[in-house]
What we know:
The protein is of the alpha+beta class.
Amino acid sequence: MKNKLSKIVISSFRVLFTLIVCILAIFVLISRFSEKDPTVAGYQMKAVLSGSMEPTFHTGSIIGINIKQNPENYKVQDIITFQKDNKLITHRIVTVTKKGGHVLYKTKGDNNNAEDLWTVSSSEVVGQYTGFTIPYVGYALNYVSTKIGSALLLFVPGVLLFLSAFISIITSMKQLEVTKHSKTG
């Protein structure tokens, strides 16, 4: 009974690991070929690179972003992701102002002592945080986005698949040998 249960648990972990690797590979390949972040039904996953928004979400997490629909309609307390100096930043809106028909946001990281030094125009907004967070997966996503990480993401599953096939062949050969000896003996 324990042997059967352990086989089920091990098989479940293998399937889960394979699914995670496949999903990461798909995201990396889509990102590489399109040179954009993959978008699914208007949502993107972003890796958190700093602790400025802790405890809302932590460094190394992945967060879900709803790609901007109406970037002029965000309000105080909304958490937005925006582009500043070729960097993506996700902070909370603390004030909203309108100047000359343009909407400007003043933002602050939850873990920061002061508001950001800049204002964010609605045209710089990428999207709004949806409340979806997966801890620690951002570290893996950032790593597989590198050249070495991408190569390993494609190489390691291939090696694992080869080893799994090799083990299956050896196991089958042993079972055939046992069956052959039991019939002759």
